Each structure stands twice: as structure tokens, then as C-alpha cells.
Amino acid sequence: MATVKVKHVDLPGSLSQRGLLLCLLLMVLALTTGCRQGVGHAGAVEQDVRELTVLYTNDEHGWMEGMQPGRGAAGLYRLWEEQENYRPDGAFLLLSGGDNWTGPAISTWVAGQSMVEVMNTMHYDASAVGNHEFDFGLDALAQRAREADYPYLSANTRWRDSDEVPVELGILPFVVTEVNDLKVGIIGLTTISTPRTTNPKHVAPLRFTDYEQALRTTVPRIRKEAPDLLFVIAHVCMAALEPLAEKVTDLHIDLMGGGHCNELTAQQVGATVLLGGGYHFTAYAKAHFRFDRTAGRILEAEFATNENTAGNQDPALVSMVAAWQEQFQDTLGEVLAWNEETIDFRDESFRQALIDSWLQWDSSADIAITNTGGVRSPLPAGQITLNDLVNVMPFENNIIALDLPGEAVRVALETGGRPLVAGLVQRGDNWILVASGEPLRDRQHYRVLVNSFMYDGGDNFHILREADPEGFDTGIHYRQPFVDLLSAMHTSSDDPLTLARLSGYAAP
């Protein structure tokens, strides 16, 4: 653990002058009375010091179980109790940078309901709204916000028609809370990339405004409540958050927490502490403040990061997670295949097998394209269940069949975000159809399969709907062809799946 300590010794001009006059007065009194100790006690200005510790996570993505044994919510919470002396009624704030829900089946299958229950039990105090909080639609977001014992914050999320923060959805621009006799104002921000990184259809009524503009509009409002400390929790990468902190030094923001890029960091930009809590409950960042209420200033700030080591676990959270796992066992526990060893979801051969399975499912299609961001978790060793495949492909996307000219296909592959493609291979500057060996021709039309997230413009695939506004929704979930492929391979513990076997079976 790396800890940085910063002491604040600069005083405002008026306070320095008062302090100087007080020192001169004490010197005069000492000379005239000859009672140094008495004068010191009688003339000293007593400090009223309060302490506050912030524990910060982000991009939890539903991983209450942990990516490895013992490194989930129950382990992290017990680590806070043992290492940070955390207690719910203590001088602590538990904050999240957003993206709480979408991930493994235990959360995705119930649109984040289980994760909200876990975060309630962990006593979170606030969360930023991340782009993936919109994955299940606005009604689901509003329902989760009602269930949460903590607020969801975003000052730069606005209705398009009114330019107001959508409080009807349970989103607030800021809150002011009191901890250890300190008033703390907390403002939320959401990444402006949200229309490209969640289903664009879900956020069509909303817009996501400039971060600096949102802060300059919101800070004067929150200052009316006279907070002692001012924090920002943002689902925003450090590459954008660091320059933002520099631009708004005049707003005197004491802490900014980030998210979206899964960064683990604790640093300082000017007088602002910046935290990034990693991802999936595998780590956290923290900041500890000593604040003098008499002088109205921070005396000291310490900040650090810690890994979630696989130690003791909180029994209540262990039981809660187990109850959710049991609830899904009948629905998601069916064994589909046996796998020899864990397959990394970033492996190119594995990704290719996923998209190749679409062309096996629909042999009339010429080309299939999905986005890399729709593949999220490894395929585990041993039994593979539907639960595991929901973890791998967690989003609620259907397969859309399109009639596209070759020119639109080429534009999609060149401008869309990280496409995975089947039915085409690139040779030099040309795209070649695998089935016929012929080049992709701009004016020739092809049957192309894509997912609904892309068809709605996600990951910058706007060309798809523009080229075919009448795309056909097949009603088939984007993970279903891969589910069918694994089932058709008839693997077993004696004859397990291997990556090579998977690639050979899926190849057209």
C-alpha cells in the first residue's frame, strides 16, 4: 500500500493577520506578567478538529461473488472492518464511481436488483450514475434508485426537452450529508460517452453535458448549504478527470473520484485529491481528511490504494450472495459443456468462435458483426452453465438481420468500435468473403447479422440503421447461437472442450 500525506499550512490572508496580532499580544502579556504557561493556556485558540475517511470503489459491475474466491463484496467489506476500522456509524463515507450492475448473471439477470441489495448492506453513501446504469432502460434504473438506500448522482445528465436533471428517475445532481459533525457536499458526473457505451435507444430522451459546465452550474447551488468539504464522484476516466480538476481549481473541490476506465489510483492535482478504485471489488482507494472546524480548513489529507486480498469474509454478505446464487440455480444452472481449462475472453480465437456461431445459426447470412465490448468474462474451466455464458455475454441484445450494400459494411468495419467479424477476412486493403473468395463489392447487397446495441448506433455503428432502416429483429438473443454451438459439441468430463476444438467446430 502506498500512502501519501499532504499537510496544508497556508492560511488565508485575513486569518494570518489575526494570528500575527494574537502572537504579538501574547508576547506583550508574557513580558508584563512573567507567566508564560498561564498566558499560553489563556490566549490559545483551540482547534475543533474532525476526521473523515472516504472508501472508494467503481466499476463493480455486479461482481458481488468476486472474480476470484474471497475477493468479492463480503471479503472487501470485512477488509474495511479489519484494516480501516470501518463501522457504519463511524467517520466514514463509502462512495462509488458507478457502473454497479451489468456483469455476471447474478446481477444482470435481475437488472441489478441483487447488487443494490448488496450495496445497501455494505452501507454505501452515494454512487455516481455510470453509462451501464442505463443498460436495462429508464424504468429499471428508476426502480433500482427507489430500492437503494443511497442516492444516484449525476449533475450533467439532463432531459433533452427541459434541460433539467431527471429526478423522476431517481437521479440527483448532488447531496449534502453530515458525518462526524462535518457537512459534506457530493456532486455526481456521468461520462459524456454514454450514448455510445450503453444502448442509445435507452438514453435517447437524455443528453450528457460538459463536465466543467455542470460543475460551475452546480457548485454555487451546493455552496448555499455551506458544506465543510466538497467532493465529486464521477464515472469519468482519469484522462479527462485530471485536466478537469486543473480547470476548476477556483471551485475548491477537495476530492474527485473517477470511474469507467477501471483505474486504481490515489493522487493529487493541486489541492484536489483524485481517487480511482479499480474494478469488480478487487481493490479500493481511500482518502483521510483532518479538518479544523474553527478555521474552516483541511489540516491534512492522506490518500492511498489497497488490493482486496482474499482474507476473511463478512457472514451476512456471504449468506446474501449465496441466497441469490441459489435463486438462479434452476434457471441458469443447466450444464451445457465441459471445458478443459479457462479460456480468456480476450483471446482472438475465442472471440472469433463466438461470432462464427452466428453464421452457423443462420446459414443464409453472408456476414456477422458484433462489438468486442459485448464479450466481458472468461469461459471457466470445468462445467459450463448458462450462468457462465450470461457472464461472458451479459447484455440484453438481440440479433438484427440487415440487407446492406458492401460500402456500408466497409464503413461499419472502419468506423465502428472494435468490431468482431465473421464471413469476411481482410487481405491488405481488401475485404474478402470467406464463402466465395470474392472481394466485398460496394454496390452488391449482403445479408448481415449485427446486435441491437450496434443497430441503435452504439459504439459508433450509426451507418447500420442509416443503410437499412428496416432491419429485422430476429428475436434471438446475441448469446444464443454460442449456447447452441456448445450444446451441439456434446462435450463431457472425459471429452472436454478445448480452444482448438472450439475454433475448429465454429469455423465456417
**Biggest beta sheet summary:** 8 strands, mixed
Instruction: Tell me the CATH architecture of the largest domain.
Output: 4-Layer Sandwich
| Range of helix content | 25-40%
Which structural class matches the secondary elements? alpha/beta
Radius of gyration: 27 Å
CATH fold node name of the largest domain: Purple Acid Phosphatase, chain A, domain 2
Taken together, the total number of domains comes to 2
Q: Report the top-level CATH class of the largest domain.
A: Alpha Beta
Q: Approximately how much beta-strand content do the residues carry?
A: 25-35%
Q: What do these coordinates show?
A:
The chain starts with a strand and ends with a helix. Helix 1 runs antiparallel to helix 2, helix 11 packs across helix 16 (about 480-490) and helix 11 packs parallel to helix 17. The radius of gyration is 27 Å and the shape is globular. The chain folds into two domains: about 5-10 and about 45-320, Metallo-dependent phosphatases (Purple Acid Phosphatase, chain A, domain 2, 4-Layer Sandwich); about 335-505, 5'-nucleotidase,  domain 2 (Alpha-Beta Complex), CATH 3.90.780. The protein has about 500 residues and is α/β, with parallel strands linked by helices. The chain has 17 helices and 25 strands. Strands 1-16-15-2-3-4-5-7 form an eight-stranded mixed beta sheet, with no helix packed on it. Strands 8-9-11-12-14-13 form a six-stranded mixed beta sheet, covered by helices on one side.
